[in-house]
């Protein structure tokens, strides 16, 4: 039995969707649960050459034998969720999904407030998905819960009971975190942050398990970190340099162009500490060194790539165990069996 949490180690967009898809394919967990804020985070999942932009359903949905869960700590936009269930009906998402009856509900008024608030929209760079205003109402104890929404009644359940019972049976659980560590309301680049904490401890609480039930925390880093919207970015490079390197990306939710920077080793160390990382997954190694594209064996990586990985391990004191060398699931090096 293992319970693993996947966490973004930068400002989101680290490639967590690819890592989650790979782990689901290899480890075949019985439950894949989503923690995090809500539909303000997007993941891109590629299945047989087709891309799916997902904001609510756990990104491990291609693993057909797993229950899919959305924890009580997550904000749910019923409109977004129901559209995704319909979009993913070939994966039988609707038959496998459990939405915790205590999850908070985003209403249209929250989205309108989010988009109209000049401070949030222009200065902070909110996604406009209504999460901030909904979390305000949650704190004020006036927010609707999933159990209050008739359209969701077929999916309601107790996610905490589901996960704890699964672990008691000795089966595996994977918890997906959203956003990135430095978008945390507490530990991020305040005020340019999201509306709640985004570290492993909170993701565990989001789905209703205690810290002693967690076996692994896998922090995901991208070789060239990116950031959407405003806020500090100490290692940011000029857009011209990013274009020269072939790193032009756009946010899954906002469609805004991502700012690009060089890898920040000290920031990585801090992310590992904040999350209690036991392992690191590194994505975009093929962007760092194009000769590494599609490589599936560590021994076949270039010296430059190996030295980069060794420095990450040296600074963070955490092993790099999963290395992505391309967008496809099979373009992955898995060193977990070696630790």
Automatic annotation (TrEMBL):
Pathway terms, separated by semicolons: Purine metabolism; AMP biosynthesis via de novo pathway; AMP from IMP: step 1/2
Catalyzed reactions per annotation: IMP + L-aspartate + GTP = N(6)-(1,2-dicarboxyethyl)-AMP + GDP + phosphate + 2 H(+)
Highest taxon, organism lineage: Archaea
Residues holding GTP: 12-18, 42-44, 258, 284-286, 324-326
SUPFAM superfamilies associated with the record: P-loop containing nucleoside triphosphate hydrolases (SSF52540)
Keywords per UniProt: Cytoplasm, GTP-binding, Ligase, Magnesium, Metal-binding, Nucleotide-binding, Purine biosynthesis
Co-factor: note: Binds 1 Mg(2+) ion per subunit.
Family annotation (InterPro entries): Adenylosuccin_syn_GTP-bd (IPR018220), Adenylosuccinate_synth_dom1 (IPR042109), Adenylosuccinate_synth_dom2 (IPR042110), Adenylosuccinate_synth_dom3 (IPR042111), Adenylosuccinate_synthetase (IPR001114), P-loop_NTPase (IPR027417)
Residues annotated as catalytic: 13 (proton acceptor), 43 (proton donor)
Gene Ontology terms for molecular function: adenylosuccinate synthase activity; GTP binding; magnesium ion binding
Top class in the EC scheme: ligase
Gene3D superfamilies on file: Adenylosuccinate Synthetase, subunit A, domain 1, Adenylosuccinate Synthetase, subunit A, domain 2, Adenylosuccinate Synthetase, subunit A, domain 3
Cellular location(s): Cytoplasm
Cofactor needs: Mg(2+)
Residues holding substrate: 252-258
CDD domains with a match to the protein in the record: AdSS
UniProt keyword Plastid, yes or no: no
Pfam families: Adenylsucc_synt
E.C. code: 6.3.4.4
UniProt: IMP binding residues: 13-16, 40-43, 127, 141, 179, 194, 256
Positions bound to Mg(2+): 13, 42
Record-linked PANTHER family: ADENYLOSUCCINATE SYNTHETASE
Annotated family: Belongs to the adenylosuccinate synthetase family.
Subunit structure: Homodimer.
Protein name, as recorded: Adenylosuccinate synthetase
Species this chain originates from: Methanocaldococcus infernus (strain DSM 11812 / JCM 15783 / ME)
